[in-house]
């Protein structure tokens, strides 16, 4: 009994998120850069002119650009129950922070519907839900189907509600899986919103390996998502400051959002947002030694450029909102 408990605890340490891991199946082999480019959409890496060292500052932090934060709120992927959904939290933070950057920091922060991705993407063979996934699953889903915000669905850390459709060979979530509303007096009380406000991606793909390409992408366009290897020392032992891995951990099992970089007491670091709640690390963030591929952080990063055109049409008055159907064209709206 005691042995089983120890084993269970070790198993948890080894599987924070299963980024790239697929339950009991072996993790697919790491992809080459060319294979990742082949999975991309409208691949537009930052041009080499932007990569000149003199165009990139010594430190950068999207949480503090001349005193302003361009980051949307932090999340905890593990409530109301454990779910290996780091892949979607880190990737959606990248998209919603880049939306905030596109807004120039003005207006209301967009919080994307994590639950819709969790319950719908596996139907299209994009991710394995709470058992793991990749940034390309998130960006690929958003490119194909678009994603509403959390006003359509709250996070449940549960991927099971629509999984039966996959067994029936259905690859697209019904409207009930994408946006719902409940209204007193309405029959049925809860109903699907056919046309909610959604966001997409115009371009996504891998960031070339290494510090310079990562910095150029972050500085020019916004935060990126990277895979890392974790381990007990980081998960349970991190108490602030720059984390340096002394265990040579290489088993990649987690995805995080890199929001900037700097140097502390002579040690260069990446500033990283985690998705384990603000009670972990430094307000939910941590610093990781930079330039040494610590925890494999400089090997497998992805960018995405958000598509906010639907929001713009609503702001311009071309689309108007409604309780029954969601967004409708202004000239077709009932008065
Ligand atoms: C998902 O994968 C299964 C098994 O390989 C396949 O039969 C199915 O057609 C795929 N569905 C989609 C939407 O790609
Ligand atoms: C980690 O790698 C370094 C450099 O190869 C080596 O000196 C060190 O002993 C390794 N540490 C562990 C715990 O394996």
From TrEMBL:
Superkingdom: Eukaryota
Keyword annotations from UniProtKB, A to Z: Signal
Record flagged with keyword Aminoacyl-tRNA synthetase: no
Signal peptide from the UniProt entry: 1-19
SMART domains hit by this protein: Pept_C1 (SM00645)
Domain Peptidase C1A papain C-terminal, first and last residues per copy: 56-305
GO molecular function, one term: cysteine-type peptidase activity
Pfam families documented for this protein: Peptidase_C1
Transmembrane among keywords: no
InterPro entries from the UniProt entry: Papain-like_cys_pep_sf (IPR038765), Peptidase_C1A (IPR013128), Peptidase_C1A_C (IPR000668)
GO biological process: proteolysis
Family of this protein: Belongs to the peptidase C1 family.
Protein name: Peptidase C1A papain C-terminal domain-containing protein
